[in-house]
Design goal:
By secondary structure, the protein is mostly helical. 78% of the residues lie in helices and 0% in strands. The protein has helices at 3-54, 56-64, 70-98, 105-116, 118-125, 131-144. The longest helix has 52 residues, at 3-54. It is elongated and about 90 Å long. The termini are far apart.
Length: 158
């Protein structure tokens, strides 16, 4: 082999090694991005749960449908919005990644609360920002069956 052939071979090997390193770097970047997304989602989850826990009395009374003061109703409606929005975002992301058939796990929790807790349902009905999600929850209600008799208010939102 002459010098030119050796240099071409070395160049080809260099290109292949560069592509392998680029692929490895992309994988590391993707993994780091996924870890950041997971951490951010966990922080949001904790924040919502902390808000519900900090307002447990309002949350439980609101879920069962007790009369709430205007202030408490505002707190409860915002908690329902945050709880529902969390699942909506997961459902929406799952649909983007998996397709229209995915995401029931992110619908069932909300649907169960809509089915079992009249106060939650009243607050839920006022949410019109995500019509396709509302439709998905309403269709899951038909599959979930009858409401749980005398549901424990402590389980609302779980």
């Amino acid at each position: 082999m002459d010098l030119r052939a050796w240099l071409e071979t070395i160049g080809i090997i260099g290109v292949i090694v560069s592509l392998l390193l680029l692929g490895y770097e992309l994988r590391l970047t993707r993994d780091a991005s996924m870890a950041e997304r997971f951490t951010a989602a966990a922080e949001v989850e904790a924040s919502i749960r902390d808000s519900i826990a900090a307002n447990a009395d309002v949350w439980q009374r609101g879920c069962v449908g007790d009369d709430l003061s205007v202030t408490d109703r505002t707190v409860f409606n915002n908690l329902v919005w945050a709880y529902t929005f969390r699942y909506f975002m997961r459902w929406h992301t799952d649909r983007l990644l998996v397709g229209a058939g995915g995401g029931n796990v992110f619908v069932d929790g909300v649907a169960t609360n809509v089915r079992d807790y009249p106060g939650f349902r009243r607050a839920w009905i006022s949410l019109e920002w995500a019509r396709d999600y509302v439709d998905a929850v309403e269709s899951r209600l038909k599959v979930l069956g009858p409401p749980t008799p005398d549901p424990d208010p402590a389980n609302c939102g779980i």
